[in-house]
């Protein structure tokens, strides 16, 4: 079990890092569940559309406990583009929970 102090320190560090990033004008939440075939084309097209807007943006992908390679592909997008963030559920909680978690974590 992690030390509660280390979890609090990690949370504070993440919060501090995010506070240095300007708030986006637009946030897009995308729930994912066993979508390995769709992650790349969906995120690629979404980022192309966002690039055409005169707004700053972020994409919050929420992996709802996928059993395939969805989370790994989403993690790769996080490495490729700083606008993309990922929330991962350990198990499937459903689309409503995924959307709610995404809305809770948009900046």
SS class: alpha/beta
Distance between the termini: 29 Å
Q: Helical percent range?
A: 40-55%
The fraction of residues in strands falls at 15-25%
Please state the oligomeric state of the protein chains shown.
single chain
Biggest sheet statistics: 3 strands, parallel
Q: In DSSP terms, counting alpha (H) and pi (I) runs of 4 or more, how many helices?
A: 4
Output the strand order for the largest sheet: 1-2-3
Number of strands: 3
Q: Which segments are poorly predicted (pLDDT under 50) over 5 or more consecutive residues?
A: 1-7
Overall 3D shape:
globular
Helix and strand sequence: HEHEHEH
Averaging pLDDT over every residue, what do you get? 88
Radius of gyration: 14 Å
């Amino acid at each position: 079990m992690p030390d509660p102090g280390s979890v609090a320190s990690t949370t504070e560090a993440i919060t501090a890092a995010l506070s240095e990033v300007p708030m986006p004008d637009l946030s897009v939440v995308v729930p994912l569940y066993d979508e390995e075939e769709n992650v790349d084309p969906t995120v690629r097209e979404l980022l192309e559309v966002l690039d055409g807007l005169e707004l700053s943006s972020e994409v919050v992908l929420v992996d709802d406990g996928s059993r395939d390679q969805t989370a790994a592909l989403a993690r790769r997008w996080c490495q490729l583009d700083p606008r993309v963030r990922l929330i991962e559920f350990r198990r499937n909680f459903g689309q409503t929970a995924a959307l709610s978690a995404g809305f809770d974590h948009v900046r």
